[in-house]
Amino acid sequence: MEITSMVPVLDAANIDEVSTFWAGLLGGRVKSSDDWHTVLVDDEPRLDVQLAPDHVRPEWPGGQPQQIHLDISVADIEAAHAHAVGLGAVPLTEPDRTAASGFQVYADPAGHPFCLCWG
Fold it and tell me: What is the pTM of this model?
């Protein structure tokens, strides 16, 4: 099997809000249709958001339903933290961001968990 691409897909009731959030966080732009948005970075698809009117916000940790989570490695955790929160991310953990390595868990506007990782 040859895999030619892989793009995670998030369900969301408000695809405008969620795709705009992820485009801002990843430094990209949104290509949209009625019920499907693609987040492009350097004109390459990085993430899709599909309309799911009955989407249930996942609870973290261990809540139901946790659909997926994304790990995003960053060079500067403080700058990345400020950027993510400024776009509407909600911190779900409060680690010591001065540590040499670690991760912090956040939720996007629809509640999808993601981690900013460093070190």
Answer: 0.81
